[in-house]
């Protein structure tokens, strides 16, 4: 394969930056001389999907995996409805959730809920789980990645200051790993930092190696 069309199905600027900075790795794994990157935002209402997915969900850790599959189906529908040729095309979708005390933490709906999230995370360890789906060679492959994040004890004053200064309403769990150097909410972590940010790059590349 000489030329590859890479489509990221996401509205996340963080996932976009991760993909853009990693194009050479995709070229190497897929033997592509050139990659054209496109970004398409899914047209799904995730809060409505919650009701559909959670109704029959057995293992809550599968939630982001299932949502990544919904996103993939949505992106494929968009492309097919626009008669996009999917030959030599790689599509990636992903979703990230925080799992803590057998509860799913997505994006907080407002600052009040964001504060509640951080109070609950104080002095505790949570799972950051990203589900991802890959469309390649007319097939879909899905998997998930897990990282562990342990928070320091968070005083109310620090949480309130953090909420006011860091934009977090668009982030699962209501915190930004990449901005943590400013506030040091996090004590330590295990696993992929890319996964914590929102796109498990290493596992996606490993899956592509297996596929290819």
Average of per-residue pLDDT values: 94
Here the CATH topology equals: Maf protein
In what range is the share of β-strand residues? 25-35%
* Structural domains: how many: 1
Count of DSSP helices?
8
Sequence-ordered SSE layout with sheet pairings:
Elements: E1 3-9, H1 13-20, H2 23-30, E2 34-40, H3 46-55, H4 63-81, E3 89-100, E4 103-105, H5 111-121, E5 125-136, E6 139-151, H6 156-165, E7 186-190, H7 193-197, H8 201-211
Parallel strand pairs: 1-2, 1-3
Antiparallel strand pairs: 3-4, 3-5, 5-6, 6-7
Could you write a compact summary of the structure shown?
With about 210 residues, the chain is α/β, with parallel strands linked by helices.
Structure description:
By secondary structure, this protein is an alpha/beta fold. The chain has one domain (3-211): Alpha-Beta Complex (Maf protein). 39% of the residues lie in helices and 28% in strands. The protein has helices at residues 13-20, 23-30, 46-55, 63-81, 111-121, 156-165, 193-197, 201-211, and strands spanning 3-9, 34-40, 89-100, 103-105, 125-136, 139-151, 186-190. Strands 1, 2, 3, 4, 5, 6 and 7 form a 7-stranded mixed β-sheet that branches.
